[in-house]
Specification:
Blueprint: E1 14-19, E2 23-28, E3 32-37, E4 42-43, E5 46-47, H1 55-69, E6 78-83, E7 86-90, E8 93-94, E9 97-104, H2 107-114, E10 119-120, E11 123-124, E12 134-140, E13 143-144, E14 152-153, H3 156-161, H4 167-190, E15 193-205, E16 208-212, E17 221-225, H5 229-235, E18 241-243, H6 245-253, H7 269-287, H8 299-317
Antiparallel strand pairs: 1-2, 2-3, 3-7, 4-5, 6-7, 8-15, 9-12, 9-13, 9-15, 10-11, 13-14, 15-16, 15-17, 17-18
Helix pairs in contact: 1-7
């Protein structure tokens, strides 16, 4: 299978490399970042043992489209997309929080609610709600970014009191988060989708706040199909989703939730191919465009293509 799960490039001007759950990020001259979106897949903050062919291309191309579609709201880090799996952008100092915004009671928020909690990240949730019901207003439930392991829920007050983000900057992040989510909701509606919840990362460069990383991808966001949403909600049925939730559900059904002692179920070639198909479906439904698979004779040829394309891009920037 032509899945890229590891990269080890040495670009001109390279100062360092950061390996995240999915992305390999190369620091170029302290000015630019080369973000390679690999085919690794994570769930419950655990990187799964098998890569998913074309997943990196799907995520990178969706993120690029939405960065362009929100560039009038705030500047973003993207400079170029030299390869289907790569974005080259401005190096920023990242804020150590992720801004999660939820329009509906789903996923982690629902699991907390079902357990009896009525506040999340210091934000009150109304009594009497059911799974997947729309909140009266979207709520922001930030998490602290963990270098390793699980990100943790954190309140606005804790973020400011601990000095993770200044009050002025945090309140600006909230305004940006609401504006980007509103834009994403509008775009999703045109595609017959509901943008249920999502997360954003921001950074600073020269005292300017930039939107970073991915945006509105199925790894960072949850989508429902709008058609039939109200009927399924009324009947207490599962919603038709476009998100990575199907991977989490498969893992949970097979006894894995990222807890100590649990083992990831076997990812057979059929399971992996099925996940690829779902990611292609996600791309086409979210963007309204046909997904065109980049040429992939084998993993070495993909890595060579990436190295060539990125090196040419960096030559033009230097």
């Amino acid at each position: 299978m032509n899945a890229i799960t590891r990269t080890d490039f040495s670009f001109e001007g390279q100062r360092g490399k950061y390996t995240g759950k999915v992305r390999d990020v190369y620091d170029i001259d302290g000015r630019y970042l080369v973000m390679v979106v690999t085919d690794r897949i994570s769930a419950f903050d655990v990187v799964l043992p098998e890569g998913i062919p074309y997943k990196g291309q799907v995520l990178n191309q969706i993120a690029a489209k939405f960065l362009d579609a929100t560039a009038d709201i705030l500047p973003n880090w993207k400079i170029a997309v030299p390869d289907p799996m790569v974005t080259v952008g401005r190096r920023c100092e990242p804020f150590k929080v992720e801004m999660v915004i939820r329009g509906y009671l789903s996923g982690h928020a629902w699991r907390e609610y079902r357990a009896g909690k009525r506040t999340i990240c210091g934000v009150a949730m109304p009594d009497g709600m059911v799974e997947n019901q729309k909140f009266p207003e979207p709520i922001i439930t930030p998490t602290s970014k963990a270098a390793e392991g699980h990100d943790e829920d954190i309140s606005k007050e804790q973020i400011i009191a601990s000095g993770l983000v200044s009050r002025e900057d945090y309140e600006q992040l909230e305004r940006y988060t609401r504006a980007i989510y509103a834009r994403g909701t509008e775009i999703a509606a045109r595609m017959g989708l509901i943008l249920v919840d999502t997360k954003y990362e921001f950074g600073k460069s020269d005292e300017t706040i930039y939107l970073m990383d991915e945006i509105h991808t199925p790894d960072s966001s949850r989508y429902f199909y709008a058609e039939g949403y109200a009927e399924r909600l009324a009947r207490g049925e599962r919603q038709r989703q476009l998100s990575k939730e199907f991977v989490r559900e498969w893992l949970m059904a097979n006894g894995f939730q990222g807890q100590a002692g649990q083992k990831v179920p076997e990812m057979t070639p059929e399971i992996v191919a099925g996940i690829t198909d779902r990611y292609v479906e996600l791309y086409e439904n979210i963007t309204g465009e046909k997904f065109v698979k980049a040429e992939a004779a084998d993993t070495q040829s993909i890595l060579h293509r990436i190295e060539t394309n990125v090196s040419e891009c960096l030559r033009q920037l230097r």
